[in-house]
TrEMBL record:
All residue ranges annotated as the Aminoacyl-transfer RNA synthetases class-II family profile domain in the record: 30-360
Species of the source: Cerrena zonata
Keyword field: ATP-binding, Ligase, Nucleotide-binding
Record GO cellular component, one term: mitochondrion
Gene Ontology molecular-function annotations: ATP binding; lysine-tRNA ligase activity; tRNA binding
Keyword Membrane: no
TM stretches of this protein: none
Protein's name according to its UniProt entry: Aminoacyl-transfer RNA synthetases class-II family profile domain-containing protein
Length: 370
């Protein structure tokens, strides 16, 4: 028996053990989370992918635009060399593809030393897969098939919380989701043509022409990301509620690990990444692209990241992994890479707008309380 004073809402919210004892929705949420992970794992295993685990405690190099947590190891071998928790498994997984593993995936945790809000927690779970000889259209097909499989698998469960939310998500089962190309869509929404050179100065002027405030970081990548967050992600999502929407062919400045090509729009030519992001209701769920497999081009992109980091003091700029560049010289076949946030998928299916509700012991603040 639980004393009545312990069932008050304020007590339940700060005590996850008590929450499970008195709140069926919390138990259902963990069941749904477990089945989502099982469904994703089964989807890839049936397609003959090999599940692997890669290092969490690493040296230099991040594989994503994010600031890592750093620490030191008490071991004379490392001579106080700083270590860090991985922000993504990407570079390790691609090294395995170079080593001959053509279809691999990993479900695991990563860590980013960033702010905490309703959709971000410093510790989070993702699924990433990499497949040799795979193009961007094929990555889109795999994504659509996975959403359909997830919806069908979850629809067989007898979980009241899920049964309440699934009818609103029926579009996930239909496939052939809406697709928008970055530059033409941005220009259509803003009514203004992008500058022919996407450098910091011209993008600052573009912001001012649109009467938009500037982000704190004025690197070209940060400015382009700001435009996407204002004009693209919320607007294209609002036209397709509860539906995955693909935004593709982002400018190369946003994707230092992606393969790029030049595309002309009217008389202007831009270097764009063979990449897509998948949004649902304005939130990003998936990031995928054809991988840069030219070691010289990858080194050039890493050096550009270092310049941006130095010029604009961008703590979240990708940290180069030069061992990865050396590994590329052995030969990375044309490869498609894909990453999905598991926690956000759980939020979608349980109908929650806060990430702490789908984590077993809540967000970082809740972990300290528990």
């Amino acid at each position: 028996m639980i004393p009545e004073e312990l069932t008050q809402k304020s007590k339940i919210n700060t005590n996850r053990v008590l929450n499970y004892l008195v709140n069926q929705d919390s138990i259902d949420t963990m069941k749904i989370r477990s089945h989502i992970i099982q469904s994703i794992r089964t989807f890839f295993l049936k397609k003959q992918y090999l599940e692997v685990q890669t290092p969490i405690l690493t040296g230099a190099g991040t594989g994503a635009n994010a600031q890592p947590f750093t620490t030191h190891l008490k071991n004379s071998f490392f001579q106080n060399q700083p270590l860090q928790l991985r922000v993504a498994p990407e570079l390790w997984l691609k090294k395995m593809v170079i080593g001959g593993f053509e279809k691999i995936f990993e479900i695991g945790v990563s860590f980013r030393n960033e702010g905490i809000d309703s959709t971000h927690n410093p510790e989070f779970t993702t699924c990433e897969f990499y497949q040799a000889y795979t193009s961007l259209p094929e990555l889109i097909d795999i994504t659509e098939n996975l959403f359909q499989r997830l919806y069908l698998d979850l629809s067989t469960l007898n979980v009241p919380l899920l049964e309440k939310n699934l009818p609103d998500l029926v579009n996930l089962s239909k496939g052939n989701f809406p697709k928008y190309e970055f530059i033409p869509t941005l220009e259509s929404i803003t009514g203004k043509t992008l500058p022919s050179t996407l450098d910091s100065e011209s993008l600052v002027d573009y912001h001012r022409a649109l009467n938009q405030s500037l982000p704190s970081n004025l690197s070209s990548a940060s400015l382009l990301d700001n435009l996407a967050s204002i004009y693209l992600e919320p607007i294209i999502s609002s036209e397709h509620p509860n539906t995955p929407v693909f935004l593709y062919n982002q400018p190369a400045e946003l994707s230092p690990l992606a393969k790029s090509t030049h595309i002309s729009y009217s008389s202007r030519s831009y270097e764009i990444s063979l990449r897509f992001e998948c949004f649902i209701n304005g939130k990003e769920y998936i990031n995928a692209y054809e991988e840069e497999n030219n070691p010289f081009e990858q080194a050039k992109k890493f050096k550009l990241q270092q310049v941006q980091k130095a010029d604009y003091n961008d703590n979240e700029s990708l940290i180069p992994d030069w061992n990865y560049v050396n590994s590329l010289e052995y030969g990375l076949p044309p490869t498609g890479g894909w990453g999905c946030g598991i926690d956000r998928l759980c939020m979608l299916f349980v109908g929650s707008d806060r990430i702490e509700s789908v984590l077993p012991f809540g967000g970082l603040k809740d972990v300290f309380r528990n």
